[in-house]
Amino acid sequence: MSADHHGSAPLAGRRVALTGAAGRETGLVDAIAALGGVAREFPLIAFAPVPPDGPLDRALAQLNRYDWILFTSATAPSFVADRLPPAERAPALPKIAVVGPATARAVEAVLATPDFVAATHTAAAMADELVAAGIRGRLLLPAADIASSDLADLLRAAGAEVETVTAYRTGSGGGAPALATAIDDGEVDAVLLASPSAARGLADAITSRHGHPLAGRMPAILCIGPSTSSAARAIGLAVADVAHDHTREGLLHALIGWFERHPGSSHASV
Prior knowledge:
Elements: E1 15-18, H1 26-34, E2 38-41, E3 45-49, H2 55-60, E4 68-71, H3 76-83, E5 95-99, H4 101-110, E6 116-118, H5 123-132, E7 138-144, H6 150-157, E8 161-172, H7 176-184, E9 190-193, H8 196-210, E10 220-223, H9 226-234, E11 241-242, H10 248-261
Parallel strand pairs: 1-2, 1-9, 4-5, 4-7, 5-6, 7-8, 9-10, 10-11
Antiparallel strand pairs: 3-8
Helix pairs in contact: 5-6, 7-8, 8-9
């Protein structure tokens, strides 16, 4: 993430709220600071491991049953790696397919270099790309407890045998009260949402404080992709923009573009 083609400080003075899980937004914090902005973390979600000896552990003990393991987020790989049997008893990893460069980096850091990296992030396009690449047979898909089944359903319709297991659980990150206060006090110019769970957390933060969204006082809300923006709109949040590239870098570019188009915007009315 860099400012090379956006000017020296395109986010100068902008105050940006990050809503991902604690400790997972360091890259965005640094990138926003490098662009002149100030990023504050308000974790609206948190991740936790699943109980032992469940479907995840049973699947990982029999990895030789699978042709591919598929990761669709950068969160799952570390939870999977933590639950692999000891090296002397661990079955060899199947081929690994991932979605996007961030997930590829996460997999490489804790498991192995992925065999295939899908470029698309929507379920339909992703399924088409995986099928076109010959990723079929028996697939293991470790995901969050609240993950959509759309991708698995589409792959099954294309002939793959997909086993989805919960790799981690999603809960509240505890940052909602502080974010609601910061918005009330006019200390936030933009809020970045990178998941439907974060969108729901933002809506809950606002409504728990006021009983309804602050329609005239909200900062600009920017979403990482269509599933997040759909969730935000469904619960009454006005979305200012959606990243074209559904990654955190794409979200940063959307943030820069928003303020380039609205140079006088501060604590924007939506």
